[in-house]
């Protein structure tokens, strides 16, 4: 059985000029132990799709789907209190820009212990011990000392490790990583990706990797979904996608990679295709 199963997800925001459809009929499945990558340009609805699935969008968003289940449970019919028991415990998300995602007014130790206080029955000492264990697991040096630090006292890479530790605090079945290496230098990016894949393998979690980096996809994913302007354009296993992409848009994405480009300047997708050509043959 799939951990997360979505059929025909639609997300609309009410704007001054009228409704704006950010996600248009996206369907996907991910199982335990599987790594699914969702790729596409900025604004393609990757993050919004996952925030909608978790019920984390603002009230101005209208979310509908033919099916939206987690571990066999209908997420759309859940009350807010029922959903809160799952989010952060069974489904966890690593958000973009870790420093912005952490509360600057509280120590990182307090923030990870808050997750444990809400979702577990652990006492104060046990929560602290678990936080130290998690910091150690994600490679934060001197974990006991670091618990007392505020986000601004840590580097971007360390804050990202704090976010990973917080997401893993309750051993979730599904982890969603939204651009987990954004704004990190290349060396730290590799460390974070290696850490994520090691933890995913050890715990046999389902992992959804949201990214625009095709190199990350090649290194991490089992299957790939390509999105453009809120719609799913193609879905394939990672080898098939790179060796014989079916969609003209996917071929254009791969052609825009630095290794594949010719000339002095990288081409843009707009130079390859019109929207009509991109949506022609799009999958659901």
From TrEMBL:
The keyword Nucleotide-binding applies. It is found in: Cell inner membrane. Residues 4-254 form the ABC transporter domain. Its main location: membrane. It is a peripheral membrane protein. Keywords: ATP-binding, Cell membrane, Membrane, Nucleotide-binding, Transport. GO terms for molecular function: ATP binding; ATP hydrolysis activity. The keyword ATP-binding applies. SUPFAM superfamilies: P-loop containing nucleoside triphosphate hydrolases. PANTHER family: DIPEPTIDE TRANSPORT ATP-BINDING PROTEIN DPPD, OLIGOPEPTIDE TRANSPORT ATP-BINDING PROTEIN APPD. Belongs to the ABC transporter superfamily. This is ABC transporter ATP-binding protein. The lineage of its organism: Bacteria, Pseudomonadati, Pseudomonadota, Alphaproteobacteria, Hyphomicrobiales.
């Amino acid at each position: 059985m799939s951990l997360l199963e979505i059929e025909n997800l639609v997300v609309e925001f009410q704007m001054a000029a009228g409704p704006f459809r950010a996600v248009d009929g996206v369907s996907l499945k991910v199982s335990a132990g599987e790594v699914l990558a969702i790729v596409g340009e900025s604004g393609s609805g990757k993050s919004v799709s996952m925030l909608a699935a978790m019920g984390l969008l603002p009230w101005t968003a209208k979310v509908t789907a033919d099916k939206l289940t987690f571990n066999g449970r209908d997420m759309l019919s859940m009350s807010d209190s029922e959903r809160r028991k799952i989010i952060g415990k069974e489904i966890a998300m690593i958000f973009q820009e870790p420093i912005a995602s952490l509360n600057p007014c509280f120590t990182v130790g307090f923030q990870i212990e808050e997750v444990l206080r809400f979702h577990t029955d652990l006492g104060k000492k046990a929560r602290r011990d678990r936080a130290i264990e998690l910091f150690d697991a994600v490679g934060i040096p001197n974990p006991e000392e670091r618990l007392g630090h505020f986000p601004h006292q840590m580097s971007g890479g360390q804050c990202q490790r704090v976010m990973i530790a917080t997401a893993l605090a309750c051993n979730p079945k599904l982890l969603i990583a939204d651009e987990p290496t954004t704004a990190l230098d290349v060396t730290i990016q590799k460390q974070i990706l290696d850490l994520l894949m090691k933890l995913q393998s050890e715990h046999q979690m389902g992992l959804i990797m949201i990214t625009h980096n095709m190199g990350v996809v090649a290194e991490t994913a089992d299957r790939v979904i390509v999105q453009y302007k809120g719609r799913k354009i193609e879905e394939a296993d990672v080898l098939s996608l790179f060796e014989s992409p079916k969609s003209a848009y996917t071929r254009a994405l791969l052609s825009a990679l630095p290794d594949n480009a010719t000339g002095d300047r990288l081409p843009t997708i707009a130079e390859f295709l019109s929207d009509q050509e991109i949506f022609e043959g799009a999958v659901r």
